Amino acid sequence: MSSYTPPVAKKVPTERTHHGDTVIDEYAWLSDKEDPDTTAYLEAENDFLKQETAHLSDLQEQVFQEIKGRTQETDLSVPSRKGAWWYFTRTEEGKQYAVSCRVPADSDAPPEITPGARLDREQVILDGNELAGDSAFFSVGTSSVSPDGTMLAYSTDYKGDERFTLRFKNLETGELLPDEITDIFYGGAWSADGSTFFYTRVDDAWRPFQVYRHTLGTQEDVLVYEEGDERYWVGIGLTRSERYLVLGAGSKITSEVRILDASDPTGEFRVVRPRTTGVEYGVEHADDFFYVLHNENAENFELATAPLDDPGTWTPLIPHRADTRLLEIDAFSDHAVVHFRRDGLTGLRVLPYGSAEPDWRVRAEAAERNAYEIDFPEPLYDVGPAGNPEFTTTRLRLAYTSMVTPPSVYDYELDTHELILLKQRPVLGGYTPADYEQFREWATAADGTKIPISIVKRKDTGKPAPTVLYGYGSYETSIDPGFSIPRLSLLDRGFIFAVAHVRGGGEMGRHWYEDGKLTRKRNTFTDFVDAARHLKASGWSERIIARGGSAGGLLMGAVTNLAPEEFAGVVAEVPFVDALNTILDPSLPLTVIEWDEWGDPLHNPDVYAYMKSYTPYENVDGRPYPPILAITSLNDTRVLYHEPAKWIARLRATASGGPFLLKTEMGAGHGGRSGRYDAWREEAFALSWIIERGTS
Hints:
One of its GO terms (biological process) is proteolysis. Pfam families: Peptidase_S9, Peptidase_S9_N. With 696 residues, this protein is α+β, with helices and mostly antiparallel strands. Helix 5 links the parallel strand 34 (465-470) and strand 35. The protein starts with 13 loop residues before the first strand and ends with a helix.
C-alpha cells in the first residue's frame, strides 16, 4: 500500500437537539452540494482513492477483461408476443446501451434469433445508444407501446437524478411528436385506444404524489389524482387484459387502489376499498372478475376474488398459510399464476380454469382445486413470471436462475406441462456449471432464530477460504440465489461467495421482515454478524469481506461498529449510513415515507434513542476498523452523497485501522454509472479491491 496523506475534512460544529439530546455534527457542511468546499473535498477524496489504489490498476484491468470476455456482447433477448408483434432487445459489441426492437408476429412460436443477425422485417423502436449520444449518463425511465402497437411513450434522464423527460414516437412513421413533458417519474400507462397517456410527478421530497393525464396533441395536461398524505406514493398501470387502468397509492404498510375503464380515460377512478392502516392489497383483472391479493388478517397474504361491480367485496380463494408468502398473482384468459415464497425459495402455482363454466366463481374455485406447482431440480434457485404481456395464451414465460445456473428463459406449456428452454444467458470462456457447487447453511442467532445462508464456490476450492459475505435486510426485499458473471472472477481465484438472508428481508415470509424493522431493526445487524461467525466456526471461511449497498450499506456500517474484528474489509455502496439525521429531516427525499420502515425519531423519543443506538455515523469509535471502501454518486436522490462522505470523514478522524476510502461518481445517480462497459469497470474496481483484501 502507498503512504499518501488522506484528505482531512474541516470540522464545522453544527448543534442539534432532539428530545433533550444535544448532538454535535462537525461534518454537516458536506450536505451543501453547491458549496465549493464540498466539491473540492469530494474531488480530493477521489484523488486520494486513485493514489491508494493505483497499484491495483493491472488487476482491475484483468478483472474487467474477464467480465467482458465472459459476456456475449452482441446478443438478443427472447422475443415476447404482444398483439401483432414480437418484442425484444439487442445489444451490440462496443455499444453501451440496449436497442429495443420488434418484428411482426406470423405465428405463436417465438422467431428464431441469432446474435448479430437482423431478423426479417425488424423494426427499431428505441436505440439507447443513439439517444445517449456523448452524454456521460443516460437512463430510460419508461418505454411503453400503446395497445394498438402504433405509438411509443418513452422517458429519458441524462443526469442520474431520476427526473425524466417524456416523449412520444409514432412507430408507423418513425415521427417524433412535438409533445414533450419534463420532470416526470418512472412508469406510466396508456388508455385502451392509445389516445391518452397517464404519468406521475414527484414532490420536493422525491415522492411520486400526482397522476396526470396527457392527451396526444394537446398542451394542457389534467391532474387526475394527488396524494396528500406524505407517507404515501402513487403509481399507475394498465391491466394485462387492457380493460382497466389501475391507480395505486401506498405507504410501507397500507394500500389503496382505484380503477377506471381504460376505454374511458376522462372518466372518474373509483376506489376498490378505502385504505385501512396495515392492510395492503393489489388488484388483478381476470376477464369477468378480479383477483385481490391482500393481507387483511393474513400476515403472509391470501388470494381472494371479487365481482367487477363490487371489487371491495372479497371472497377467500387461497387462504393464508404460515409457511407460504404469496407474492403476486398474474391473471390470463384461461388460467392464473401465483408467485410465492416458501422455505426461503420462490415458486409458481398454476390455477387452470379448465372449462367454459359461465359462473366465474365456479371457474375460480375449480381452478384452485386443480392447481399445481411447477417443480425445479436444484436445491437453491430463483424463479418468477417474466414477459407475459398477452392475456390470451397457452404458454407461461418464466425466468429461472441459481447460483451456478445462468439466467434462463423458459416457456411452460400449460396443456402438456412441458418446460421449454428458450435461452440461457451465454457465459463465454468455457464456463462449466458442474465445476461449481451451491449450499444452504443455517446460522443460529442469539435469540435462537435460524438464519439461512446461501453459498457458492468452485468444487476445487478448499476450506476455509476467503469469503465475500453479502447482505441487505430491509423493505422485505429478498436477495435470492442468483447467477453473476462478475462473481466468477472471485470464485475462480479461490473465493467463496455467500449471502446472509438476514431479518428485515423477505426470504422467510412476512414475519422475517417484521422481525427486522422499526424497533427490531438490530436483528438485521446481529444476524449478519452471527452469519459471519458461523462461516468461520464451521470451517467455511477465514478472511471475510462484507458487501452491501443502499439499505445494505446501512447494514455494512452497523456491523462494522458491532464487530469490526470479524471483517477483513467492507464495501459499502451508496450506503445509508447517516440514517438518524436523514430520518429526522422531513424535507429530505423519502424521509416521511420511510417512517413506517424505521420509525419516526422526530416525534417519538423512544425511536430516536433506538436509532441512535445503531446508526453507523453516530456510533463510530476509536477501535481498529477494517479497511472500508465507500462508493457513492453525487446525483443520487435516494441515499444522498453526503452520508458516506460524512461517515468516511468521521472514521478517519476517530477510528484506527483502515484505510477508509471514498469514491464519488460526480455524474451519476443511485445505480452508479449507466453504460454497461462503465458499469463493468466500476465492478472490476470493487472486485480488485476485494481480491486484495481477501488474499493479503
